[in-house]
UniProtKB/TrEMBL annotation:
<dbReference type="InterPro" id="IPR038404">
    <property type="entry name" value="TRAP_DctP_sf"/>
</dbReference>
<dbReference type="InterPro" id="IPR004682">
    <property type="entry name" value="TRAP_DctP"/>
</dbReference>
<keyword id="KW-0732">Signal</keyword>
<keyword id="KW-0813">Transport</keyword>
<dbReference type="Pfam" id="PF03480">
    <property type="entry name" value="DctP"/>
</dbReference>
<dbReference type="InterPro" id="IPR018389">
    <property type="entry name" value="DctP_fam"/>
</dbReference>
<protein>
    <submittedName>
        <fullName>TRAP transporter substrate-binding protein</fullName>
    </submittedName>
</protein>
<comment type="similarity">
    <text>Belongs to the bacterial solute-binding protein 7 family.</text>
</comment>
Amino acid sequence: MLEFNIMRAHAARLSMSTIAGILLLCTGQANAETLRLAHASSSKSLIQEAVAMFADKLAGETKGGLTVQIFPDGQLGDEGPIADGVGSGSIDIGLGGVADAIDPKLNVVTLPFLFSDANAAHTFLDGPVGKKVFDTGADNGFKMLGALDSGFRQFATVSKSIATPEDIKGLKLRTPPNPVILATIEQLGALPQSIPFGEVYTSLQSHVVDGVEPEIRDFADQKWYESAKFLSVSNYIWTPNFWFMNKERFDALSPENQAAVTKAVEETTIWYRGKLDEVYAQVIEDLKSKGVTVTTVDTTPFRAMVDPVYAKFGAEWGDDLVSSVRSAAAGK
């Protein structure tokens, strides 16, 4: 009886997706399938909570017929390699902010000062122009499932707060390999440095770079604040964690399982969006308690500098696309 109680207590702690996996082993369900999902965010992050919820919802919706194996912490590579893996089919589902392997035009949603706040970004994503943007990628072998906020990006530096364009001029700032971010940082007068995510901590510590332009949850999770003690909140670029699947793999699912994936994504996205304000407020308080100086930037002079970035990518992706996205993002 004691052994039975211990086993029952242990089972109660298992997630639905894990239980579903055990049941599949026991019952030998003929149509059971497992999807490999990878992301580069921390295993303690809100992204990880979200994909774990997605896995549970999917297992429940399909009665254990479709389960998800999650690889967090960049176990299967950084964001670029994850997108490449989904494209080749070695990974079924990926999340990340690097969209070039899917379609470079997806980066249109990361143009500088495009969204006034997170609600504006969500309204755009759920609207007709956002849905049209996200239809891209299908020709390159990707099924766009949606996007979870990677959030607004800020400025964090080792030696000083950034209040004016003069403060950022000449600083070496680590950036991800996003062409819009690279072009924007250059336009603002700083020197972008494409350093892999996993090397940022030591690059700050050794002063290889003067700072970063992070989303604040990554800034906190990766402990970059231990070297970069000045966080200047500018919301200068909003970035998504694109959520995508290998299109052939999606198309090979039964119609019922395709619908279950879509439903689980939609429900998880709603939950995730509802957590953001609470999470960001807590992260800011935690950073302040760790000695980080947090200031808010007057973005007016920075906004006045970025029109050449819009012109650059309008020429590359089409002025009509950039203009329609800019208008829709402003609620016009």
